[in-house]
Each structure stands twice: as C-alpha cells, then as structure tokens.
Amino acid sequence: MKNSYHIDEKGCYGEFGGAFVPEMLQPNLTELKEQYLNILEDDQFQEEFQDLLKQYVGRPTPLYYAKRLSETYGTKVYLKREDLCHTGAHKVNNTVGQILLAKRLGKKRIIAETGAGQHGVATATVCALMGLPCVIYMGAIDIERQAPNVARMKMLGATVIPAKSGSKTLKDATNEAIRDWISNPTDTHYIIGSVVGPHPYPDLVARLQSIISKEIKKQLLEVEGKENPDYVIACVGGGSNAAGAFYHFLEEENVKLLAVEAAGKGVDSGESAATSILGKTGIIHGSKTLLMQSKDGQITEPYSISAGLDYPGVGPLHAHLFKSKRADFVAITDEDAMKAGLQLSKLEGIIPAIETSHALALLEQKTFKEDDIVVINLSGRGDKDLQTYIDYFKY
Ligand SMILES: *Cc1c(COP(=O)(O)O)cnc(C)c1O
C-alpha cells in the first residue's frame, strides 16, 4: 500500500496523532474539527489570508541563491528566507491564519502557550492587529530567561501569565493553556504554535505553513526550470517550519527530505533534544507521537542551546515521516550549529536563528553533488539569539 503523509479520518498519520484529551475539552475540539476545513477552503478566508500574508507578513519571501555558501560546499544552495517575515520567523504564517479562523468561529479572546517567546510574540502581534485580548502562558523559568520577548508581548498588549508548576517551562505552560481553554470553552480560541497537540491542530498548522513549499515550487520553476529540488532541509522543534517546507513535496518521492533535530551536547549525552532518534511512542499534549521519556514513561527534560528546539516531543506528522523513512532525521550538536550560524553570517551576511543554524550545519555533515539543488528553510533571524552568540563566541 502506498504511504499517505496526510491525516486519515481519525486525525492520524499512520500510527501517530489523534486526539487524546480530557472529556471536558472535547466540545472545543469538535467545533474546531468540524469547521476548520470549510473555513480554510472558503474563498473569502483565502482572499483575506493571502492579502495579509502579502501586505503584513511580507510574502512571498525570497528563495535566495547563496553563492558563496554554494561555492564552499560545491553544490547549489538556496535559502528560503522565512527570517524576512514580519516578527522574524515563520511562526507568524500560522498565527495570521489562526486569528482569521478564530474570528470566523466568533471567538473574542485568544490564548497561547510559548517557550522561548517567539510564538507568544507572533500571537500577541496578530491580536494587536485584530484588536483581540490575548493571554500568553509561559513557564516562570522561561520568563526569566527570555526577558526581551516578554517585554515585546507586553508592549503588544498581551497579558503574560507564568506557569509555576512542574519544570516551569514549555510543557507546563501548555498544560496551563489547556486548562484555561477548558474553563473558557465558548469565547476563547487557543492558538497552538506548532504541528503538535490534538487533532486537528497538526493538520491545521501544517496547512497554514504549507505556503512555504508552495512558494518554493513556484520560485524554483522560475530560476531552475523545474519545481522540485533534490533536497529540502529544515530544523525540527515541534515541526512546523519543516512541515511547511516539506508539505508540497511529501508525495514527490524523488525529493529527499532532511529533518534536523538538536543533539544538544551529543545524542547520548543525556542533554539533548533529538526526539525522533531517542524517543518512544507516547502521548503528549493530546497527541500520540514520539517523545523522550524515561523507562517508566516520565517525560524527560530536553536540552538544546536553542530555546526553540527543546521540546520533548515532535509533531505526529514527523513521527510518521521518521517511522516510514520518508524523511531522514539527523541530530546536530550545539557546537556544530553555532559554527554553521557563524559561517552563514560571514559568507552571506545573514545572521540566522540558532534553530536554523542546526539545519545549516548539515552542509558540513553530508556530501552533496555538484548539480544537486539543496533548499534550506531559513526559519528565522538571529537577533533574538544575539546574547547566546555573544556568550558562546565571547565577543
Ligand atoms: C520556533 C522556531 C523553530 C521551531 O519550531 P518548529 O515548529 O519546529 O518550526 C524553528 N526556528 C525558529 C526560528 C523558531 O522561532
């Protein structure tokens, strides 16, 4: 049987996905499940969405031929410039889509979870744009570590609520957001920030981010005379920028998909976020997927120098791409990522987000042929990571 890389009628990608949530959350999810496709496929929705992507986000983002990087590695490297999106990363593609969806569902209040604060900022941004109240849940430890993003969210008018339970990081913030949603089922929409969570979120977010691969196809056709590259490379935290960059290539089996996770201090060091490679099947935030867990099934704390990659799970689409071997999963250490980030800065004048630096590091790790077309999704810019770069390189 041919593999499908899209959800089935139960919201599953192969053996992964679904919706494992408390009964009290079912009504919210049922409403979303029954309406999201109709809304997304509605002409008026698409018109408004495409207009905002163009005029507000700044799409289409360039597909930039990186000449000096290509010369260095003896292959053809194109960078999909999601770093040039408004707010500096791909995350806003999803929040713009979901805020329009929320309005059509008649919701008057928005909640979201955030780890490093990037999704919180992207959510607070579109709430300001639409004049909707916005509550962001964020781990108390992350609030301390990510002060500039907390300030941004507040300036944009959002209320930031610290999650003080558990490890006081992303997974605890997510639990708090889910609790809020259960208590406010009729007026509130929960904007999840990646292709994670219960059905229909992974499919919803993947569709909203799929604009990335749609543009890549069109842009490659213009410059190379063909729509398909040989490789698409993207970093994976929860998996949304990779899902967007892979989406329209999933069925094109001659396009090799490379998913890059964070090895932290090394895959076997006990301090990593190489979820697919180390993970076992389990349930996290309402979805059956691969996640890092101890022998007795406790979720283990992930580690990466990059705050956007240290999620203990991965979206169910990626778990399926891993199991079915449709995508190759590679883990890159902090050290190799930081080197690759510095190299891109010096060779191309682009300072990438450290998440993205993990994807860039693959050029050093893998050999590509001279006429290979390699597209790397440049998920975000490095401004937010400047302090980490400074501390690391001792500038
Ligand atoms: C959040 C983030 C990521 C990781 O999230 P995904 O859902 O895996 O894309 C990657 N890059 C940047 C720049 C981010 O802000």
UniProtKB/TrEMBL annotation:
**What GO cellular component term, any one, is given?**
cytoplasm
User: Which UniProt keywords are listed?
Assistant: Amino-acid biosynthesis, Aromatic amino acid biosynthesis, Lyase, Pyridoxal phosphate, Tryptophan biosynthesis
Task: Give the superkingdom in one word.
Answer: Bacteria
Gene Ontology molecular-function annotations: tryptophan synthase activity
- Which residues are annotated as modified residue N6-(pyridoxal phosphate)lysine in the UniProt record? K91
Q: Where is the Tryptophan synthase beta chain-like PALP domain?
A: 58-380
Q: What is its EC number?
A: 4.2.1.20
Q: Which cofactor does it need?
A: pyridoxal 5'-phosphate
Catalytic reaction equation(s): (1S,2R)-1-C-(indol-3-yl)glycerol 3-phosphate + L-serine = D-glyceraldehyde 3-phosphate + L-tryptophan + H2O
The top EC class is lyase
| Keyword Acetylation on entry | no
One matching Pfam family is: PALP
Q: Kindly give the InterPro entries that the UniProt entry links to this protein.
A: Trp_synth_b_CS, Trp_synth_beta, Trp_synth_beta/beta-like, TrpB-like_PALP, TrpB-like_PALP_sf
Q: Could you confirm whether the keyword Lyase appears in this record?
A: yes
Pathway it acts in? Amino-acid biosynthesis; L-tryptophan biosynthesis; L-tryptophan from chorismate: step 5/5
- Quaternary structure, from the entry: Tetramer of two alpha and two beta chains.
What does the UniProt function comment say about this protein? The beta subunit is responsible for the synthesis of L-tryptophan from indole and L-serine.
Q: Which family does it belong to?
A: Belongs to the TrpB family.
**This protein's name:** Tryptophan synthase beta chain
List the top taxonomic levels of the source.
Bacteria, Pseudomonadati, Bacteroidota, Flavobacteriia, Flavobacteriales
Q: Which gene encodes it?
A: trpB
